[in-house]
Design goal:
about 200 residues, three-stranded mixed beta sheet
Length: about 200
């Protein structure tokens, strides 16, 4: 009929429009995927190039103060070296043999000490044991010293040079009975001793 003919035409045009819209949508998706892939590939290439550049500058990805070297490399005193061998090992930085170090502590006698650590406590015993071990492993000569008051003389190990102290917080202040040494007195004791040194390390007991 005459009424049905326009409806058929409209339905046909609508179908064609939907097909065109479908083709346009598919084309847009394809363009979007291609554009995204190219951008992603570009950013990945830039990232890889930057990473390679950074690795070559800092020594194959290690921090600036660590670098890969053969055993024939001569590092400076401030650089740590990882030697290339069958097994990687940490090589300590070189130390000038002429450098002399004094490592000082101010131990004290503990009345209620445990038998294995007397006349000091466990904490002081561990600290002084660590100092002895460090001195043995050091490439530079290390002198160990113990600055003590007269009543604490027994706290100084036999391998330590004793530096006598003559005053404490208990002798200088009336509001305390705790005898703590003055750090300046410890350094003065080192300065007035016969020890030859370039550096002083103080460890608090």
């Amino acid at each position: 009929s005459i009424v049905g003919f326009p409806c058929i035409i409209m339905a046909t045009e609508l179908k064609m429009n939907l097909q065109a819209l479908k083709r346009a949508t598919i084309l847009f998706i394809l363009i979007f995927i291609i554009f995204t892939y190219r951008n992603l590939n570009f950013f990945l290439n830039v990232f890889i190039e930057n990473k390679n550049t950074s690795s070559s500058v800092t020594g194959s990805g290690f921090p600036d103060d660590v670098f890969i070297a053969n055993k024939n490399t001569s590092p400076s005193a401030t650089e740590s070296v990882i030697a290339e061998d069958d097994v990687n090992e940490i090589v300590p930085p070189s130390v000038d043999d002429d450098v002399r170090i004094v490592h000082v502590i101010s131990p004290y006698v503990v009345d209620t000490c445990d038998a294995p650590f007397c006349p000091v406590d466990q904490e002081q015993s561990l600290v002084m044991g660590s100092m002895l071990r460090a001195a043995e492993k050091s490439r530079a000569p290390v002198l160990l010293a113990a600055a003590t008051l007269s009543e604490d003389a027994a706290a100084a190990p036999p391998d330590f040079i004793r530096l006598p102290l003559t005053r404490s917080t208990a002798t200088e202040y009336t509001n305390t009975t705790k005898a703590l040494p003055f750090i300046q007195d410890i350094f003065d004791g080192i300065r007035n001793s016969d020890m030859k040194y370039d550096y002083v390390i103080y460890t608090n007991a």
